[in-house]
Write a structure and sequence with these properties.
Strand content: under 5%
Largest sheet: none
Structural class: mainly alpha
Low-confidence stretches: none
Number of helices: 7
Shape: rod-shaped
Order of helices and strands: HHHHHHH
Radius of gyration: 44 Å
Helix content: over 70%
Distance between the termini: 108 Å
Length: 212
Amino acid sequence: MAGLSNQLSGPQFEAMLAELRAISAEPTLEQIRAVMIRYGIKSPTAKDGLPSAQAATTLRDGPFKRYLDRLNAGREAREQLCSAAGAGKHPVDAMEEMAAIELQDHFTSGAAIDIEWVTKQLVKLRASISMREESRRKTEDLERKQRETEAKLQLAEQREQLYREQIASLTAEREERERKKSELLAKIEGAKKKGGLTKESLAKIEEEARLL
């Protein structure tokens, strides 16, 4: 089969597989032979030079089967891409897997290696890996900023709690001074009603006043 597939370029071989798939996911050997003939594939070992049923079987069970597998993988990859996009994630896993499958199929198909196509696939893989690294860096940066924000919020909460405690303490001290002041004024008024202030009571009131 390698001699047959080497008669086509990579894109031509891919087009032939696509035409077979358009006919059916399970084309008959005659349908496969007809497509191979239409693409000008020759069999040097056959008497008439045309692809044999064995060549059609080899194509069906080899490259065509892998082509179908790749299409299925592509459909699954698209679903993964949509799912990843919906979840807000970078869908690099599906992209890398798809590119790897396409490369593997190309190298094992038996067709001539299309250097330009392989280069494009490798560029695609490199872009995917770059996306993964960029995604990782952004995620780490976001997590770092989140940790810093949480630390700042915690510090702000601690400071606010300290301020509340200080305000409560100052308020309590002020209320205590007001209470003592009221008591002192009440003592003075009481002393006046009793006939005036004595030296002893005045000294006591002055002492209490110094403590306020």
